[in-house]
From TrEMBL:
Mitochondrion in keyword set: no
Modified residues (N6-(pyridoxal phosphate)lysine): 53
Source taxon at top rank: Bacteria
Lineage of the organism: Bacteria, Pseudomonadati, Pseudomonadota, Gammaproteobacteria, Chromatiales
Protein name: D-cysteine desulfhydrase
Family: Belongs to the ACC deaminase/D-cysteine desulfhydrase family.
Organism: Rheinheimera salexigens
Keyword annotations of the record: Pyridoxal phosphate
Amino acid sequence: MIPFAQLSQNFTKLVLSHQPTPLEVAARMSSLLGIKLLIKRDDCTGLAGGGNKTRKLEYLLADAQKHQADTLITIGGIQSNHARQTAAAAAKFGFDCELILQDVAGAPTDNYSENGNILLNSLCGATVHKLSINDDCQQFAQQRINELTSTGKKPYLIPIGGSNVIGSMGYVQCAYELVQQINQQQHRVDHIVLATGSAGTQAGLLAGLIAADSDIPVLGINVSRPVTEQNPLVEQLLRQVLQALQLDPALAKNRVHTNGDYYGEGYGISSSVSESAIKLLAQQEGLLLDPVYTGKAMAGLIDLVHSGQLKPNSTVLFLHTGGSQALFAYRSCFNIPIYS
Ligand SMILES: Cc1ncc(COP(=O)(O)O)c(C=O)c1O
């Protein structure tokens, strides 16, 4: 195993998150499913509600500081968790923050544009540009960069989901943290399951596992694309991360597995299996998932256990990447009585 300090010597980071996040046994779900279900609590990274983007932002903000930037710009859907964590990170380190957020086709109407993450962005002082479905966000971002630069500001563009080599370093580090916890708690993990979207979480995690000499398979449950699109996205970024770490990009071969059966009608559109998984985890474990990412990933995990693709008595580790702040934007999807 290459020591992490040596592996990451070309990267700097700021501290934004609570680390290590807990690795817990989900006892009631384990007995319900007939497996050992472990949950890595990256919903508890701590920054304004936490989530996976906080680890990425530690590296991205350090890079922004290195470039003497004063304004962070990023892009996402209206209920982007990444945008919320970027707004909070910007506040903590004194950057201005501009969020370019796009409507999502098929998303709920009540609460979606005013509650959940979008409310928290404004609380953290971010400037929010709301774009409609047919607008070109990248073009708008470039326009804002030009405008800000012409007034003497120094903008720094963080890609969608923080998913470039620098952001993925957060999950290279998480892999080391996880391997240490798995060893300390004496688990033998057969599978890691997580939600995969812009790909940096899965790519970073895989690069870290490869560098740490761990061959635990990682299954991404796609939240927006079929396997034919998501697999190459993850693999391309994984190769770039391996290269940046001075490892052989060919080590990416046969490491990327994703499943496109659970994203339903599309990104940001809640599904009934995801809503059932959200209710189940809340009622069995007191654990909050979300309709866009972790609810769909957990629905996939449960279904793969039921179909025998995740074997009885195996140990499955679910990487909880956060997102429950979006529940409030999806209120209308949960037709549950509030009062008796
Ligand atoms: C809660 C949550 N889970 C998972 C993901 C997917 O991570 P990635 O975009 O790195 O694939 C995101 C991305 O926004 C997220 O907000």
